[in-house]
Each structure stands twice: as C-alpha cells, then as structure tokens.
C-alpha cells in the first residue's frame, strides 16, 4: 500500500459567508456546516466557536479531538463507516490540515470529558493548545440516552473534520509525506536481515462508553486482529471512548499515532515493521486473557522478533498490558510497554494497578495525579461548572479567585499513552536490534 499525506498548515480559522481555504486561512460558513450536521435528528441545535493558540480561552467539556482530513484520491473516504462507506482506506492521497483540529463540546455526555487551555500552565500539557481549534457546540434533543448522545457528538465531530479538510481539494499542499508498506511476503524478501517488529495497539472496548471503532465497527468482542498501519493514518480507527481525558486516545491520536509514524519512518532502514495488531481491552478477566493469548499467537505466526505494546486508559487495562507482555516474552518475543502512571500527587504510590516480572522495558508518559492550578480565563467555551464533575476535578475545583485546581488527568491528552505529548521517553531511544530500553518514570 502507498499513502501520501498532503499537508496544509492552517494559520487561522475565520467564519465567513462561504467556506474555503486560502493563503493558510480556513474560512467556515457556520450556516452551511450547521445544516450539514443537523441532518442528524438527534441534534436539537449546534453552534460553533474558535480557539486560537495563546488566547485566554478554556474549552470544557471536550468529548473528542479530531484532525481534519479528506481523501484527495484513492479508494474509500476518511473515517470509513461514518463519513464514507466501509471501503478500505490507506492508499492514494489524503489532504491533512496541520496545526488545526476539531474539539467537540456542548452538554456533557459523561464525567470523563476534558479541558483544553489555550494559554497558561495548562497549555503546556497538550499539543492542542498550539493548534487553531474549531469547536462544535452540540445540543442534543431532550432526554437522549447517554450512549446515543455520545454517538451523536462523535459523528458530528467526524463530519465537521471532513467538511473542513474538504475545502483543500485540488489545492497545492505546503508539504507532502509518502509512506509505503509492503505485504508480509515482500518484506521477507526485501529485508531478510532486519529485526521484525510489530506494534500491539491496545484499544478500549469495555462498553460503558469505553469503546473504539474500526471501519465503523465497535471492536468489543472481536478477536485480536491485524491492520495495515496506513489504514490507521487514514482514519480507520475512531475513538468512542469516554475514559479519563488525560489518557484516552482521542481520534487525533489514532490519526497521528507516533509509534506507527516512527516505525513507518524507520521501516526498511533499521527495522522491518511487520504491521499493527489490535488487542482488545475488555472488562472481564477471561476476555483479557483470550485477547492477550491470541495477540501473542499472531505475533508468533508473523515471526516477529519484538513488539511494542501501548495501553489505553488505566486501572484494569494494566492487566491486559501485563498479560500481553508476559505471553509475548514467554514465546521469546521481546516486549516494550508504553503506558502512563497514577502514582499519587507526590509520585510515591504504585503507578500501575498490575505488574509482572517480565515487564522490564517500560516507557511512561507522566503521572495523571500531578496537580496543577489553572488561571482564570477571559473566555470559557462550554461550561466551566463541569470541572466539578469530570475526572481529575472535584466539587471544590473552582476557587474563589476564578482559578481552577485539577489533576492533569482532566486535561485532554496530557498523559497520552501513545507518547503523543512531551512527557515521554521517545521511542527513538529503543534499540530495535534487541528491543530493550531503560525503565523511566516521569512525575
């Protein structure tokens, strides 16, 4: 497969009478976009706002963050199963809006939604504060069930992102990057002497609004499966996950999975990147074991020398993480784990809910219990009162002077377990020949 990303660097977003993209500025017609989203009868009203880097702006609550993309050529369409049909993606050309994202907001769906600050100390904990953000504010029809509410907001965000990127069709990009990924048989012929590496992408599929979708299919209940990394870059995986905002993998994280990108960029040079294995994170122990056993069996069938395993969420998913580690190591497959920690505000508590002796190569992406006070903002998009009920906040989080005190678990993507943010040990430190690296804790 071959995929070219046509990158357009967005300098600003502005509302206008007609939607277009010109000289780095994305112009959005609110009326036209609202009519498009309100084709969904579950939406009672929709409005839009814009947040820009450095502004005294807070967005809360945030359900998902999505990077705008749209297929310029090739089969399928971005976010297959939602915006397009379920045709295979991962080929042709895809237009990408860089330094730009969609953050869905409005009425709170569940307590596990997050905050983005565009300035101040909170802005240091995620990359979204450096982006121009379009915020759809979704008001559902009355008495909508929370699971339907989540799906309504999720799909509205995906449609908004596709609509935005569609404005760049047939325009000259600022930059392009092309990825190629061969069949497994071709790899064996082309790179016989390179260490074979697979990436085990653990995805939430626990129900209870902890779900992930591949080609529009909820992966809850499926056996572990293989997917081409180029399909992931082309929007095949979508977040429906209301796990704690600090360490949930939003859709933008899947689109820009840094482990996938790093392995693709090194493929054929010092490693042979065999592919991606999706491993379920169930809430039931037998299902955790089944997923880990089957994932390690797939790795063995592929003949890989090592795997990198990333977690999503925390608590009981750490059992999935450790089972994947144990079963791979027992088959002689070297394993590197990527996670975050919840080790108390002083960093002295046990960081993971489960451990195994085989887990001797671990990358951490921060401590979700780290406490921070966020300054009062001139503007709040959404409803700041929700900080009292979201993960990382509490009933006393809003202080008398207007500041907000939370654990960084409340900040969207702060401890992303794919290594998307700055609180990480870069995977470039990994020696893929031996797949070993020192354990590092960041608090």
Task: Please give a structural write-up.
- With 443 residues, the chain is of the alpha/beta class.
- It contains eight helices and 26 strands.
- It has helices at 30-37, 146-166, 184-190, 229-233, 251-255, 258-266, 285-302, 317-330; strands at 2-9, 12-15, 20-22, 25-28, 43-51, 57-62, 65-66, 69-73, 92-98, 100-103, 105-106, 114-117, 132-140, 175-180, 196-204, 210-214, 217-218, 225-227, 237-241, 272-281, 306-310, 334-341, 362-367, 371-374, 379-382, 404-407.
- Strands 18-20-15-21-22-23 form a six-stranded mixed beta sheet, sandwiched between helices. Strands 5, 7, 10, 11 and 13 form a five-stranded mixed beta sheet that branches.
- A hairpin with a 2-residue loop joins strand 16 and strand 17 (217-218).
- Helix 7 packs parallel to helix 8 (317-330).
- The radius of gyration is 21 Å and the shape is globular.
- Mean pLDDT is 92; it is low at 425-443.
> Average pLDDT across residues?
92
Low-confidence stretches are: 425-443
What percent strand? 25-35%
- Output the radius of gyration: 21 Å
Task: Give the % helix.
Answer: 10-25%
Number of strands: 26
Number of helices: 8
Largest sheet, in brief, is:
6 strands, mixed
Overall shape: globular
Amino- and carboxy-terminal Cα gap:
40 Å
From the helix content, strand content and strand pairing, which structural class follows?
alpha/beta
Q: What topology, given as strand order, has the largest sheet?
A: 18-20-15-21-22-23
């Amino acid at each position: 497969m071959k995929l070219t990303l046509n990158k357009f660097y967005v300098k600003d977003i502005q509302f206008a009478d007609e939607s277009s993209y010109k000289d780095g500025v994305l112009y959005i017609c609110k009326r036209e976009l609202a009519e498009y989203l309100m084709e969904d009868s579950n939406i009672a009203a929709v409005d839009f706002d814009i947040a820009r880097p450095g502004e005294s702006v807070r967005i809360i609550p945030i359900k998902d963050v999505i990077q705008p993309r749209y297929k310029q050529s090739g089969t399928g369409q971005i976010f297959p199963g939602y915006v397009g049909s379920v045709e295979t993606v991962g080929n042709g050309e895809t237009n990408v809006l860089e330094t730009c994202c969609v953050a869905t907001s409005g009425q709170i769906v569940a307590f596990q939604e997050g905050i983005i600050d565009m300035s101040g100390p909170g802005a240091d904990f995620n990359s979204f504060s450096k982006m121009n953000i379009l915020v759809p504010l979704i008001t559902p029809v009355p008495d909508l069930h929370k699971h339907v509410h989540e799906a309504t907001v999720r799909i509205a965000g995906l449609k908004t992102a596709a609509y935005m990127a569609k404005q760049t069709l047939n325009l000259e990009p600022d930059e392009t990057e092309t990825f190629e990924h061969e069949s497994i048989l071709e790899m064996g012929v082309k790179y016989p002497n390179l260490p074979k590496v697979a990436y085990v992408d653990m995805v939430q599929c626990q129900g209870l609004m902890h779900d992930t979708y591949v080609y529009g299919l909820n992966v809850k209940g499926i056996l572990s499966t293989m997917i081409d990394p180029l399909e992931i870059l082309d929007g095949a995986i979508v977040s429906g996950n209301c796990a704690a905002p600090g360490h949930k993998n939003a859709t933008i994280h899947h689109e820009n999975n840094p482990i996938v990108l790093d392995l693709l960029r090194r493929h054929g040079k010092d490693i042979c990147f065999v592919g991606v294995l999706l491993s379920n994170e169930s809430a039931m122990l037998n299902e955790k074991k089944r997923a880990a056993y089957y994932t390690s069996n797939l790795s063995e069938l592929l003949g890989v020398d090592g795997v990198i395993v990333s977690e999503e969420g925390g608590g009981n998913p750490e059992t999935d993480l450790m089972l994947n580690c144990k079963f791979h190591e027992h088959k002689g497959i070297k394993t590197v784990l990527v996670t975050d920690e919840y080790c108390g505000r002083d960093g002295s508590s046990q960081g993971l809910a489960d451990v195994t002796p085989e887990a001797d190569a671990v990358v951490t992406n921060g401590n979700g219990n780290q406490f921070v006070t966020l300054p009062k903002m001139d503007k709040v998009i959404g409803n700041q009162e929700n900080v009292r009920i979201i993960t990382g906040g509490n009933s006393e989080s809003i202080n008398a002077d207007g500041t907000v005190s939370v654990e960084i678990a409340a900040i969207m993507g702060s401890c992303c377990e794919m290594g998307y943010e700055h609180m990480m040990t870069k995977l470039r430190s990994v020696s893929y020949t031996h797949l070993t690296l020192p354990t590092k804790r960041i608090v």
